[in-house]
Specification:
The protein is an alpha+beta fold. The chain has helices spanning 11-37, 42-60, 124-139, and strands at 5-6, 71-72, 78-79, 98-101, 104-111, 142-150, 157-169, 172-181, 184-194. The protein has two domains: 1-93, no CATH class; 96-194, Hotdog Thioesterase (Thiol Ester Dehydrase, Chain A, Roll). It binds octanoyl-coenzyme A.
Amino acid sequence: MRQFVFEDITSEEVARRTGVYTPLTDSVRQLLDAAIRTEVDPDTIRAAGELIDRATAMLRSAQTDGPHGVRYTADGTGMPWGNPAIGIRNAIAPPMVVTRDGDRLVADVVLGAAYEGPPGLVHGGICALLLDHILGEAASAMTGTLTLRYQRATPLGAVHLEAEVVATAGRKLTVRGSMSDADGITVTAEGIFIAPRLTMTERPDDREGP
Ligand SMILES: CCCCCCCC(=O)SCCNC(=O)CCNC(=O)[C@H](O)C(C)(C)COP(=O)(O)OP(=O)(O)OC[C@H]1O[C@@H](n2cnc3c(N)ncnc32)[C@H](O)[C@@H]1OP(=O)(O)O
């Protein structure tokens, strides 16, 4: 199995790469939204598709064999850049920026047209994705069991997420969290997360194939 991967680069190099990839991902995110909402004529859609295919071919002219992987630098900086919740190279990610507030992790995210399930409302699987991620990050562990209660529908727009470890028993952590909008909680979550026996540090040369 592919493991967490150590990458021997400086924080300056991490910042440089972040500066290169973030605008590209923002552009792709705009493209996703435009593709959903455009009402231009079919010829314009075909022409846009050809331009996008050319851009895709440019990017594919040099690429990794498999997924990005979860990379870490010597000072512990994480680069989970392909992650669908927080990845700076993944346009599917809103992206969610997770910060610490005391014992809790918190995040504020704006969910637009790409996350719609029922009309005007956030898809339940997207709520699960974001809650799974923030609870998992609070635990720094793998999701074992995740239980969600959709208390009321979440309108598209600004949402707030929280997660906090409430109990630890060996490698087993119980984490609670929620998603809310301006009117209060829409989804509550409780999960059992299991810390892996082995956490990281393959050298790039030791990497298994995808
Ligand atoms: C920074 C990180 C951010 C990432 C956030 C994103 C989180 C994710 O999406 S992770 C991906 C989704 N999750 C998965 O794919 C997990 C798949 N399952 C697995 O890999 C394993 O079954 C795993 C790791 C959960 C447990 O395996 P393993 O370490 O062998 O557990 P095991 O030794 O059998 O059991 C340890 C304890 O956990 C309990 N346990 C095991 N599996 C589960 C489970 N699924 N649910 C609840 N409890 C469990 C056992 O009962 C045992 O408890 P106790 O010590 O009280 O007897």
